[in-house]
Write a structure and sequence with these properties.
Arc Repressor Mutant, subunit A; 2 domains; alpha+beta; DNA-binding transcription factor activity; HTH_AraC; transcription regulation; DNA-binding; sequence-specific DNA binding
């Protein structure tokens, strides 16, 4: 247990220095630990050397920053100690398999690493309650828009929701919600190099709207209560930073489904939201 505790502390040491170049042998000597034996134990428990852990965690945090889009690529590169933007782009592509500019498109398929911890978390107290079910294909009717993959962000989805709400179209859609899934459905998928976004309802009625059909398959349905835009991001962050590491099946990220159950005001702080994560 003492060894595990020290490894936990050393992981914190690395996390505090993700932006630095660490001389691990010197650092361990200063901590009074024989480097070779410790690195062997660390690698056995963590699955990689301290250096590999630091590099993978650094690239993971960079990927999240690129995905969130709050800072320019050059600023991110400088923040993490890369002086040359071209060198950074080459290194990022070598380690992540894509260019920095493709991160938003492929974030869900990247091999990212959340901080490793050895804390025991009770399995009966998940951050978001979930259940795994098989769901047959069903029909959605609603409004469809197409976006360039280079320009698309999740903000576009919230903007479209707000526009439909302002124009009274959410209430109109709910009048056709005769299908088995109750609520406003947000359905994203890539079609011919564009992002197709449909906002609609499950319906078996003839309706003056666009229509599409979902894929059949196994889904884990996550539930939460909060403001729609923020909560959906939080649930996806939980899925891809934590939950997916515990799942022994591949995730299907070719499309996404979210459901706003009630109320339908996206600015309301206590809306009931579902995120449906599909499996391959």
């Amino acid at each position: 247990m003492e060894t595990v505790n020290f490894i936990e502390k050393f992981i914190i040491y690395i996390e505090d220095r993700l932006r630095e170049e660490i001389d691990f042998s010197s650092a361990l000597n200063e901590l009074g630990v024989e480097p070779k034996s410790f690195i062997t134990i660390f690698t056995s428990l963590v699955g990689m050397t301290p250096y590999e852990y630091q590099q993978k965690r650094r690239m993971t945090e960079i990927a999240y920053e690129l995905y969130e889009g709050h800072r320019r690529l050059l600023d991110i590169a400088k923040y993490y100690g890369y002086r040359d933007a071209d060198e950074f782009k080459e290194l990022y592509k070598a380690r992540m398999g894509i260019s920095p500019y493709e991160t938003e498109k492929y974030i869900r398929s990247l091999d990212l690493l959340e901080r490793i911890t050895f804390e025991v978390v009770p399995v009966d107290k998940p951050e978001y309650p979930s259940r795994t079910v098989h769901i047959d294909s069903f029909r959605i009717v609603g409004f469809t828009r197409y976006f360039s993959l280079n320009d698309y962000t999740r903000d576009k989805k919230i903007e479209m929701l707000k526009s439909l709400e302002r124009n009274g179209l959410i209430d109109e859609l709910l009048g056709f919600n005769s299908g088995r899934v109750k609520g406003i459905i947000l359905h994203e998928r890539i079609v011919k190099d564009e992002m197709e976004l449909m906002i609609g309802v499950s319906s078996s009625d003839a309706a003056p709207f666009d229509e599409t059909y979902t894929e059949s398959g196994d889904f884990t349905v996550f539930e939460g209560t909060g403001k729609a835009g923020t909560l959906m991001e939080d649930i996806y962050r939980y899925i891809f930073r934590r939950w997916r590491f515990k799942v022994k099946r591949d995730l299907n990220c070719n499309f996404s489904i979210e459901v706003i159950k009630s109320p339908y005001d996206i600015n309301y702080s206590d809306s009931k939201i579902q995120v449906w994560q599909a499996f391959e």
